[in-house]
Write a structure and sequence with these properties.
Elements: H1 8-33, H2 52-72, H3 77-93, H4 98-101, H5 103-116
Helix pairs in contact: 1-2, 1-5, 2-3, 3-5
């Protein structure tokens, strides 16, 4: 670490958290103003159970919670893991739009990195004397 007093690891962690959080904050905010631009990304099997706008904005609420929790920076293993799963599901279920959603794989890797760097000690069962 440099002697200038700057904690570069902490800054890097914040930048990573902010990047993942942005990916989860932008869609629900944009969906408020242009819902038709976003509802088409839901797979067809998800439509019809509730009105499309309830589906869109309900999922948007989940995205906002995940983003704010990750930005908060405390106990972010679970929201980072959820973010990873959501991003991978988007790629799997919207694979026909891979030319648009290919970046979600990079975002999923960033979210997984956050999860792995914040694994609670009680979640990993390591042999005695081993550390993460």
């Amino acid at each position: 670490m440099a002697s200038d007093g700057m904690d570069w690891n902490r800054l890097a962690n914040f930048v990573l958290r902010a990047g993942v959080a942005f990916a989860f904050l932008y869609p629900p905010i944009a969906a408020v103003f242009n819902p038709n631009d976003w509802i088409g990304y839901f797979p067809s099997f998800m439509h019809g159970y509730v009105p499309d706008m309830v589906l869109l904005h309900g999922f948007g609420l989940v995205e906002v919670v995940i983003a704010l929790w990750i930005l908060w920076g405390r106990n972010i293993f679970w929201p980072s893991l959820a973010a990873t799963a959501i991003l991978l599901a988007i790629v799997i279920f919207d694979f026909q739009d891979f030319v648009v959603i290919f970046r979600d794989l990079s975002l999923a890797a960033a979210a997984l990195s956050l999860a792995l760097s914040n694994v609670p000690k009680k979640v990993i069962f390591l042999p005695a004397g081993k550390s993460v």
